[in-house]
Amino acid sequence: MSNQMTYGEGTLTFRHGVHPEEYKELSNHKKIQRIPFVEEYVLPLGQHIGAPSKALVRKGEEVRRGQKIAASVGFVSVALHSPVDGTVTDVGLVDNPKGEMVPGVRIKTDPYSSQQLEERPVDFESLDIKGFITAIQQAGIVGLGGAAFPSHVKFALPEDKSCRYIMLNGCECEPFLTADHRTMLEHAREVIDGILIIQHFLKAQKAFIAVEANKPDAIEALRLHASNNAFPVEVVPLQVKYPQGAEKMMITAILGQEVPTGKLPIDLGVLVVNVGTSKAISDYFRKGIPLFERILTVTGTAINNPANLLVPIGTPMREVINACGGVTDDAARILLGGPMMGAVQKSLDVPVVKGTSGLLVLGNAEIQDFQEYSCIRCGRCLQACPLFLNPARMGLLAKKGLWDDMEDLHVMDCFECGSCSFVCPSGIPLVQSFRVAKGILREKSLRERSLRESKAEGKES
Ligand code: SF4
Ligand code: SF4
């Protein structure tokens, strides 16, 4: 049975999922504004999935805005650039959004610099696919939807695979967040241009842009720009439902096909790119601007002036909050990202990184420390899970530490959308326990692999 549901425009979707309150009205009408430059920027070297980059600068060194300050290490890694003209004040340990101290670079802004940037377009038409992939890696471009997966790795298709469809993700199904909405509305031209640049190299048949139907103005703007080109780009309104923006859910909604367990979208000939990433690709090739700033939403019931901001990577959270008039007396919790998948922050020293799509400040009314009760077998979590997993059963197994049994129930497929926890009337921290289980199972598999390898080496020698 296909997981797709089709009734008409704006109603395409997947089966299951949840309907959290949207709260988009707090910021969806706010134009993107550039935040003023601040005194200091903090840049962790590992902002992407893969190997952290390696610092190329030393304490005391002067750097320019857009200058590469750290190089990629290996293929699954990207370069990092200075967001300002300034001076390196330290290469040492800095805070990251996961609450860890990690290697990073601190840059003090030059107060006398105009921070003007000279535009230097990159002639992509003279590049071959390898040159394109290297350029994207050197521009530091990663998926801006939140995962921060290096984009060039996606574009390096295995020899036996080809890209039939480029699929842009403009769903932005997380409540509160509106940065992608404003990007599509205010930068529709660049978003479409990014598709055309990707298409130049990947030679797809067609592109789709998936947008939840609660953004009619963005849909209209994209359709207007899409119609100006020979390459077919279809803007597809999808039903407003969480987690509509998950790659697999989006593909099911549009194509009616499911990405099988253990497979990737490219196995169906689909290459998924976030709308912000598409704009970043256009910005790099048309203006020579690497990824050193991003658009994010600062919102929540406990922030004084919700906004969509263009923020240099490395800006400490407290500065971003200050730019929005600070928090109300009621502020109780700060998250990077949305309420469903965002990470709670303990320190305001944490900087904006490449994967930061939003900064959410919630008040006491939204924060309820649920007491946990026993599972009443209501089945709501099963009805919510977009992957048709059995969260109730996995939750019981997690309590007993039966990780292998959880693996048999496909816990490794869980992409931690949090829909099961959201609907659970017993307040069971389901997704949290799946996160723990996945970590333990991943470690176990690594241990087993290294044991196998060292045994094999022993046999050889
Ligand atoms: S089991 Fe995982 S994928 Fe399914 S609803 Fe829960 S968090 Fe989402
Ligand atoms: S939603 Fe909660 S109470 Fe209901 S079956 Fe799932 S785990 Fe049990």
Structure description:
This protein is an alpha/beta fold and 461 residues long. The protein has a domain at 380-460. The chain contains 13 helices and 19 strands. The chain has helices spanning 129-138, 151-155, 179-186, 188-202, 216-226, 247-255, 275-287, 317-323, 380-384, 391-399, 403-408, 419-423, 430-460; strands spanning 4-5, 13-14, 32-34, 40-44, 54-55, 62-63, 68-71, 80-81, 86-95, 101-109, 165-170, 206-212, 233-238, 270-274, 293-299, 307-312, 331-336, 343-344, 358-363. The strands form 5 sheets. Strands 3-16-15-19-17-18 form a 6-stranded mixed sheet. A 4-stranded antiparallel sheet has the order 4-10-9-6, with no helix packed on it. Helix 3 (179-186) packs parallel to helix 5. The radius of gyration is 22 Å and the shape is globular. The termini are far apart. One iron/sulfur cluster is lined by residues 384-385, 387, 389, 391, 414-420, 430-431, 434.
Task: Summarize this structure briefly.
With 461 residues, the protein is α/β, with parallel strands linked by helices.
Strand order of the largest sheet: 3-16-15-19-17-18
**Coarse shape:** globular
Strand-residue fraction? 15-25%
Number of strands: 19
- Largest β sheet strand count, sense and barrel closure: 6 strands, mixed
Low-confidence stretches: none
Cofactors and ligands? iron/sulfur cluster
Note the total helix count: 13
Distance between the termini: 52 Å
Secondary structural class: alpha/beta
Provide the helix percentage: 25-40%
Q: Estimate the mean pLDDT confidence.
A: 94
Radius of gyration: 22 Å
